[in-house]
Amino acid sequence: MSNQLLKGKKGIIFGALDEKSIAWQVALEAVRNGAEIILTNAPIALRMGSIKKLSDECQSIIVPADATSIPDLENLFTTSIQHFGGKIDFVLHSIGMSLNVRKKRHYTDLNYDFLIKGLDVSAVSFHKMLQVAFKLDAINEFGSILALTYIASQRTFPDYNDMAENKSFLESIARSFGYHYGKSKNVRINTISQSPTLTTAGSGVKGFNEFFEYANNISPLGNASAIDCAKYCVSLFSDYTKMVTMQNLFHDGGFSSTGVSQEIIDNMKS
Ligand SMILES: NC(=O)c1ccc[n+]([C@@H]2O[C@H](COP(=O)([O-])OP(=O)(O)OC[C@H]3O[C@@H](n4cnc5c(N)ncnc54)[C@H](O)[C@@H]3O)[C@@H](O)[C@H]2O)c1
User: What does the mean pLDDT of the chain come to?
Assistant: First the structure.
């Protein structure tokens, strides 16, 4: 039996591409908890992915929006307010892309046009989304906005490449905009720093499978799954976390606080 933590709440979910996407699980968990949602993704992803299946399950509409386009975002928020007949209570930004990662450019040989594009998609899009929502006064008091991030923003993971900078920028936006949105409208903004997760974006990173195993062995609780992440997101959209804002919250089975584990030491011996 679900707890209905989001009963009566209305939200927008960015970034559900296929069943492996973290956003896909967040959409399902939000609806299980009583929320009404709108799904959005870039027009090209809507053509390639399987989001129609999710929208049927969630009984939600899909509004296409490239998260780097201000007109698309304005259309998304105004359409959402019309559709819901009122303001929005929660938003998930679950978007990441690096052309340097995709094109296998080494960190010491970055293409700067690729870098700017990846920064726009992965991080500046968060500011754009917040600014559009702020100007339209689209979010209810104590509404909750989340973005997904990764610990490579704060510690070096060599193959994460320029996504590390994108995630640092993203986390900083949550703090800076969190201040202004909190002060003027009581809206809260946080980032969740999630374990490695087997998704399309995740498995694009070089050496992902080996690193997934390593993180699983270091973390006392093991890696957090997409489904567990979805439950954490729902708790942060709910009124039970009403005073949490401007935080980067680790959802990683303890990875970020562990130096070494017995499993890693045992693996070194064998
Ligand atoms: N998978 C992991 O290991 C992991 C770990 C920590 C954090 N994250 C973060 O979680 C988030 C979701 O990624 P995922 O792992 O579920 O992968 P995913 O590939 O399923 O999701 C990425 C989404 O970004 C969307 N997107 C790309 N460009 C866009 C644009 N211009 N406008 C709108 N949407 C766009 C894609 O269509 C896709 O739906 C990302 O921010 C990612 O960095 C992932």
Answer: 96
